[in-house]
Amino acid sequence: MASSSVSDGIRKFATQYSIYTGCMIFSFGVIGNVLNLLVFTQLKLFRTNRCAFYITIESISNLIYQFLSISVTILTTIYGDDATGRSLIWCKLRYILAQICALTTLYMICFSAVDQFFSTNYRFNLRQMCTLKLGRYTSFIFICCVIIHSIVLGSSYDIQPTFGCVLSNYVWIQYSTYFFYPVLNGLLPIVIASSFSILAYHNVRHIIRRQLSIVRRKLDKQITAMVLMRVIAFVCLVLPYITYRIYAINFPISQSMPMAYAVGRLIQAIFTSISIINYVINFYIFIVFSSRFRRQVKLVLVRKCWQRWKYWCCSINNRIEPDNNIELRNSQMKSVENI
Predict the structure, then answer these.
(1) Distance CA 120, CA 50 (A)
(2) Taking the domains of the chain in order of start, what are their residue ranges?
């Protein structure tokens, strides 16, 4: 009886932990990723920048993941668990969507690091090799491959009476254990992102020697520093969850063992919350470590969004702003963007 009450207490704590952390992470995630999208799509400085394009895709993927995460939180509130053991469709769909978002986010970080390496390279032919058009094609093809891969792998999840929603096929268990989590989700993106971000940082330290405009040099330094800090956070956050997933797939805990199952639920909740931070933190890393990005966020919020809202209010009241004032404000914004 004592053991049963303790296990029930642990499961309740795990449920409450999932609910509160899920709501908190969702709030910060939506705010941060929406602001990222505003900054990287509203400023002309970033519209033709390839790395900004990859960060934009990452932010969209992060937003989708946040809504998937809050759905799991809502289900946890209602049922006391993520409900994957109750519906076969949801069991498969949850892992399909999660894998699509996870792989997209991880490899957009890699693409950003690789792009910065080429963008800051002292060799002109390497700098010209990567174009925005190529980046769009590459991203589209990659996301299509990710969707196909995730559908195939996610479809292999099944509901077992004692274990819940788990991989049931031995081949896919081996694939997940020895390739998907340790390599495709772990070692490969970590090595790519870390290596190229360090190389890009090395390049940007010598960027002053090249004949580039001041605006371009400032942008390269800003983006490289942002990508490097993002990669560091990515490595720190992804390793614990990958390790846990490899263990959980190979050693699922039966519900017939209440104490072990309750502890497993708590560990899963903790590692999942750590993993989800990876889909939230990019904006906050950028704003903490880049003073220029802070000014750009302020510019977008104050001089673009606020001014548009004011203009919209004025137009409702039939007070149209003169064209020369609009042109003056636009020129001022353009000059501020380059600071």
Answers:
(1) 12
(2) 2-289, 293-339
Written as six digits, the tokens of 44 are: 């002309």
Rounded to an integer, what distance in angstroms lies between the CA atom of residue 189 and that of residue 313? 47
What does DSSP assign to residue 209?
G
The DSSP string of 231-269 is HHHHHHHHHHHHHHHHHHHHSPPPTTSHHHHHHHHHHHH
CA gap 200, 76 in Å, rounded: 43
Residue 141 pLDDT: 96
pTM above 0.85, yes or no: no
Residue 33: which residues within 8 A CB-CB, separation 6 or more?
59, 60, 62, 63, 66, 280, 282, 283
Specify whether the CB–CB gap between 34 and 67 falls below 8 A: no
Residue that has been written with the tokens 């971000």 in this structure: 197
Is residue 284 over pLDDT 80? yes
How does residue 63 score in pLDDT terms, banded at 50, 70 and 90? very high
Whether residue 268 contacts residue 248, with contact meaning beta carbons closer than 8 Å, is answered with: yes
Q: What is the DSSP letter of 302?
A: I
| Token pair belonging to 258 | 């209440």
Q: CA distances (Å), 302 to each of 27, 283, 305, 310, in order?
A: 22, 18, 6, 11
Contact 250, 173 (CB under 8 A): yes
Largest CA distance in the chain: 79
To the question of domain 2-289 being in CATH 1.20.1070.10, the answer is: yes
Yes or no: say if 204 and 120 are a contact pair by the CB < 8 Å rule.
yes
